[in-house]
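Put briefly, the fold is written as integer tokens. One such record reads:
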Amino acid sequence: MIRIRKETVMTNTGMKPAHPGTILFDVFEALKSEDNSINKTSFAAYLAISRQFLDEVFKGNKPIRVPVAARISELLGTSARMWLSMQDAYDLYEYRENHAEELEAIKQVA
């Protein structure tokens, strides 16, 4: 079972959260160092996704959504919710950064 420290993925400091794909890449690299038969092609096959999609996830260009999060959790013995929460934190940060003026213009009603 892979252990991922909570402080690696969650931040309350206002710093940009890591894209879960970059964390998945770190996990992949750790697994690869333990078992040299693991490569990107085999890892993608374990997750039932294309190698191209996996590369895009690793680079932070594609999100981890429910189907892939469920597969990652089964493969690594982690929680799908953890991967989805990381993606949500990343997406929310990105949205707030890219729409700051729009959000500031909204008047609070409560």
Residues 69 and 80 are 5 Å apart (CA to CA). The radius of gyration is 16 Å. The chain is about 65% helix and 0% strand.
